[in-house]
Write a structure and sequence with these properties.
Blueprint lengths: L2 H17 L7 E3 L6 H10 L6 E5 L8 E7 L2 E7 L5 E5 L14 E3 L2 E3 L6 E3 L4 E3 L3 H5 L12 E7 L2 E5 L7 H5 L2 H9 L6 E3 L4 E6 L2 H8 L6 H4 L1 H5 L16 E6 L5 E6 L14 H10 L2 H7 L2 E8 L3 E8 L9 E13 L2 E11 L4 H12 L10 H14 L9 E3 L18 E3 L6 H14 L5
Antiparallel strand pairs: 1-20, 2-11, 3-4, 3-6, 4-5, 5-10, 7-8, 8-9, 10-11, 12-19, 13-19, 14-15, 14-21, 15-16, 16-17, 17-18, 18-19
Length: 450
């Protein structure tokens, strides 16, 4: 088959799969979890058009600082140029496409290609090409050979980029989910910073499964995470069983961003920004709005997903090993597709810049013990489930099967006094956030704007 015929065939496969979606998004084709043609379409239709998280400003604090990341399968350099502007450059020489920068981080004003020594400054301009005039003639103009640049936007220190010149501004893309980011990141007077280099690891399973789970799946908690619950990490019932159970609320937006706020039973929970030291909490509370404090009162976890692939969690685990007090942590995690059934996770842990070194270390320990490649609790259980969803989709019968995402479809959502923006429901066991995620996914796959 010719290349065109192969592309046409892949397009037909993707169209057939998309046709299996039900109008109300209560059914999702299992083939979207492991079909290579679907991933190829996602990389083209989603990962080149959406705003993608690429790093935190503290990682490139000084002029010349840079980190290397991926936007889908495209490798990029995230750098702060000599004038202090944040730029996202395609990490490929404009001459012959050689990987320009192989280091994961560093500081430099110029990047030199190892193949033919073409040299670019950190604004992306070509500054030197050996023997260019002699080899190419007098018409050679370095200005015609810059590195490709993505559009850049920053919100609360989070750096996003998009390849789409017609994408809406970042603020419009974030919509109501920005309020929840402000609640977590915008109340620390000294701001936040990355604690150590990101943790990178490969997992089995399609990238979307992790994102939908982080976006608001309260249903799996008592079953997948039965061990930590029985160990008392979420509090314990009274002897007579009257202590109550954790509960939560889900939030979703038209852009496909989602969140869940989990609450402890009243007699177990804590104040807003639970798990912070007293000094940090006082600072956060002083800068938060009354509505934010109402959302966070007695909350032990806030987690969600920014469409398409940036998940986050802020939580205070009640047991971290040998510390007397629970300590909170905040991570942002990129789920980057490697192939249809393999995902690279990149965990970035943020800590308040004004926290003491001792508190920061406790926060790091609380995070790595529960979330990450070596986590004793939570992540191992989740990743086993994620892998099995992709594995069961390899069969012939699976290609025509759909998965059930209908939970909560028939439940009315009555207006209440929820103080946060976005659409929301006081149903912890719900798949409303899943349907919001796949609604945005389906619109993007069909070439529709949010």
């Amino acid at each position: 088959m010719t290349t065109r015929e192969l592309r046409d065939a892949a397009g037909l496969i993707v169209a057939d799969i998309l046709d299996l979606f039900s109008p109300d998004f209560g059914r999702v084709p299992q083939a979207v979890m492991n079909h290579p043609a679907v991933l190829d379409a996602e990389l083209e239709r989603i990962f080149t058009t959406a705003w993608l998280f690429v790093g935190h400003e503290s990682e490139i604090a000084e002029p010349g600082d840079y980190i290397t990341r991926r936007m889908g399968r495209d490798q990029v350099i995230v750098t702060r140029d000599e004038q202090g502007e944040v730029r996202v450059l395609r990490n490929a020489c404009s001459h012959r496409g050689t990987l320009l920068c192989k280091a994961t981080s560093g500081n430099t004003s110029h990047f030199m290609c190892p193949y033919h020594a073409w040299t670019f400054d950190n604004t992306g301009r070509l500054r030197g090409a050996p023997e260019a005039r002699k080899a190419y003639g007098p018409g050679f103009d370095r200005a015609d050979h810059p590195l490709k640049q993505a559009r850049v936007g920053v919100h609360q220190g989070l750096v996003f980029a998009t390849w789409d010149p017609e994408a809406p501004p970042l603020a419009e893309f974030l919509g109501d989910i920005a309020w929840y980011l402000d609640m977590l990141l915008g109340t620390a007077s000294g701001g936040w910073e990355v604690a150590g280099p990101p943790q990178r690891y490969l997992t089995s399973g399609n990238w979307k499964i992790s994102c939908e789970n982080f976006g608001g799946d309260g249903y799996h908690l008592p079953y997948t995470h039965r061990t930590p619950i029985e160990a008392g990490l979420f509090g314990e019932d009274d002897d007579d069983g009257s202590g109550g159970k954790p509960h939560g609320r889900v939030v979703w937006t038209p852009q496909g961003h989602t969140a869940r706020i989990g609450y402890m039973p009243p007699e177990v929970g804590g104040p807003p920004y639970w798990g912070m030291s007293d000094g940090l909490r006082a600072d956060f509370v002083a800068n938060a709005t009354p509505e934010m404090l109402q959302v966070l009162d007695n909350a032990d976890v806030v987690h969600g997903n920014l469409f398409p692939n940036l998940s986050f969690i802020f939580t205070a685990i009640t047991y971290t090993g040998d510390e007397p007090d629970n300590t909170s942590f905040l991570i942002f995690r990129m789920a980057m597709p490697v192939d249809a059934e393999t995902t690279e996770m990149v965990n970035i842990l943020l800590v308040p810049r004004d926290a003491t070194p001792e508190w920061k270390q406790r926060s790091v320990l609380a995070c790595v013990r529960t979330h990450g490649a070596a986590a004793v609790l939570f992540e191992g259980d989740d990743f086993d489930n994620f892998a099995s969803v992709s594995a069961t989709g390899r069969g012939v019968v699976a290609q025509g099967s759909t998965l059930d995402y209908s939970m909560g479809l028939g439940l009315p959502v009555e207006p209440d006094d929820w103080p946060g923006p976005g659409e929301s429901a006081p149903h912890d066991h719900s798949e409303r956030t899943h349907r919001a995620f796949y609604g945005a996914w389906l619109r993007a796959m069909k070439g529709e704007k949010p």
